[in-house]
Amino acid sequence: MDLSKLHHTEKAYEHLRAEYRELYPSHVEEVTDPLDPLTFHRKYVSQNRPLLIKNAVKHWPALTKWNHDYFREKIGSTEITVTVTPNGYADAICNGRFVMPEERTMTMNGFLDIMDEDVSQRMEKGVFYIQKQNSNLKDEFSTLLKDVDVDIPWGTKAFGCEPDAVNFWMGDEKAITSMHRDHYENLYVVVRGEKHFILLPPTDLPYIPYESHPSANYVYSGDGSCSIVDSKDKEKVSWIAIDPLNPDIQLYPQYKKARPIQVTVKAGEMLYLPALWFHHVRQSQGCIAVNYWYDMVFDIKWAYYQFLQQLSDPTS
Amino acid sequence: MDLSKLHHTEKAYEHLRAEYRELYPSHVEEVTDPLDPLTFHRKYVSQNRPLLIKNAVKHWPALTKWNHDYFREKIGSTEITVTVTPNGYADAICNGRFVMPEERTMTMNGFLDIMDEDVSQRMEKGVFYIQKQNSNLKDEFSTLLKDVDVDIPWGTKAFGCEPDAVNFWMGDEKAITSMHRDHYENLYVVVRGEKHFILLPPTDLPYIPYESHPSANYVYSGDGSCSIVDSKDKEKVSWIAIDPLNPDIQLYPQYKKARPIQVTVKAGEMLYLPALWFHHVRQSQGCIAVNYWYDMVFDIKWAYYQFLQQLSDPTS
User: Fold this and answer.
1) How high is the pLDDT of residue B5?
2) Where do runs of H (alpha helix) occur along B76-191?
3) CA A36 from chain center: how many Å?
């Protein structure tokens, strides 16, 4: 048994961290207009490098049309699925549980009424967020499809496939998407308001604490009170334990070595969020967004990432 | 000090090995004709996946023109650089030294005379190989350039740059390129005869033994005898110690875990050999080839590879 290997592993981690920082900037690169598919693939997708595209969708009618009046007129009576939480955190760790939101069906008018209330009124009811990531734009919000594109043509060419899902997002400024990563290439367009992303590259995995907790759901009762109810299967979920807005460095000192990148995506802009990048998302009140999930390629980058995961987390 | 980490590292290596094999085939994929640049980039370059292109250069006059008579006529009196070794191994470990070939200047006619001799006559003189990898096709062999292309157009589009070097290769069937890897994307075209490659993916690095030895050169004296002469600087060179044609598994048992892939490239065919793939090359007598080196992108794959190198080899 070669004890020198222990020290050696730490040295290798430091090397990866340094090498990555030498190769990748500490900000999200920007372009004014979409790139041709090959350049986009070569410079960003292949390199797993985020990109902000400023004039991504200037031809979309949604940019001028989408507001509360238009939604009330076109889809006011449509039944939609909304998540509700008492604190804005859906799919996040709370009191030793991995807590998922309540999913509630309401009309779009009902949802917009809440969005129109002032913050104290809203918070009494909970934090509402349209975020059903099952291609809901093609389903519950299909009337709105004509105001956008069913895919991002240069993205579809670059990725070599149609989007796997097209999602519509709208919600409260208190709604927060906790830090996580997806097995998807993501083209994320803000239509109104703005989204604030905190990003961490896949190579920061060794510095991101995961914890396993039993899953639970927020459940609202008739009187409007909310409680946390354990899932029946009691299956544990492994999730990121740290809040990048207020990281507990005492508890997770390794996180100091991570390099969070902040980027704000404004109306009309698109973020290319590469597969496996960790992301935490906040937004302005009533922010509206549309995102396209394209299948990621499971290649050598994935194999290396899995290797890093095995090495970093003995419980994985 | 967490001793369980030691076992854990081995487990992670096994995981990487298994994952890689699940994602990549144990043979080189083939296509009949060149792909469009984006498809080539998405499916092969970005994924670091080798590819054999059967009808790669069917328009090249070289395919029909290049033979000894033509070379004698066009460049017979041209001075060219040839490497000479007693055993065919240039840049390889021999008797505890990293031994480089003698570089000799001769006319093309002189070189062809040797190629035309029978094997016993040739071997008395040594093993001759034109393999000067400094874009020699554009330099010493520039007269031949009109018979090929100065770049591979779909490759140049995919890689987003002109080739960094275009090399001409011709030599003895005894000449062997020992296992190594390059920091280049490689488009390798066989014009006459055939080349036999043994390939190993970058993820097999943990199973490939490296050794450091002082550098030396083969030096021929006037009477035709050859000796190994140490380099003046005595600098040590780290090189792969194993011969994949006859691997010493007793000495390097880990090599059993590597997965060598054999591929033969015939006249008119092209191998896309991705950056960082280990390769060992043999050839038929008088085989002629042209290769294009394109700059590799130093991205997350490179950072991960360096990480693996740090982890695998405490001396690196």
Assistant:
1) 61
2) 108-116, 119-125, 153-159
3) 25
Say yes or no: B7 contacts chain A, CB-CB below 8 A: no
- Collapsing DSSP to helix, strand or coil, B186 comes out as strand
User: What's the pLDDT score for residue B188?
Assistant: 98
Is the separation of the CB atoms in A54 and A72 below 8 Å?
A: no
Give the model's pLDDT for residue B16.
96
Q: Find the mean pLDDT for residues B95-114.
A: 96
User: Looking at the predicted structure, is the pLDDT value of residue A235 above 90?
Assistant: no
Residue B160 DSSP SS3:
coil
Contact A147, A65 (CB under 8 A): yes
pLDDT tens-digit readout, A218-229? 999 988 899 999
Distant-in-sequence, close-in-space partners of A119: CB < 8 Å, separation ≥ 6: A173, A174
Structure tokens of A152? 């991002």
Chain mean position to CA A181 = 7
B47-56, B193-202, B304-313: which range is least confident on average? B304-313
Predicted local distance difference test score (pLDDT) of residue B1:
45
3-state secondary structure chain A: CCCHHHHHHHHHHHHHHHHHHHHCCCCCEEECCCCCHHHHHHHHHCCCCCEEECCCCCCCCHHHHCCHHHHHHHHCCCEEEEEEECCCEECEEECCEEEECEEEEEEHHHHHHHHHCCHHHHHHHCEEEECCCCCHHHCCCHHHHHHCCCCCHHHHHHHCCCCCEEEEEEECCCCEEEEECCCEEEEEEEEECEEEEEEECHHHHHHCCEEEEEEEEEEECCCCCEEEEECCCCCEEEEECCCCCCCCCCCCHHHHHCCCEEEEEECCCEEEECCCCEEEEEECCCEEEEEEEEECCCCHHHHHHHHHHHHHCCCC
- Interchain pair A15, B306: CB under 8 A: yes
Say whether residue B156 is in contact with chain A using an 8 A CB cutoff. Answer: no
8 Å CB contact of B6 and A8:
no
Question: What is the 8-class DSSP label of residue B182?
Answer: -
pLDDT digits (tens, 9 = 90+) for A249-264: 999 999 999 999 999 9
Does A316 touch chain B if contact means CB atoms closer than 8 Å?
no
How close A225 gets to chain B, by Cα (Å)?
A: 46
State whether residue B183 sits within 8 Å of chain A by CB: no
Flag if A9 and B311 touch (Cβ within 8 Å).
yes
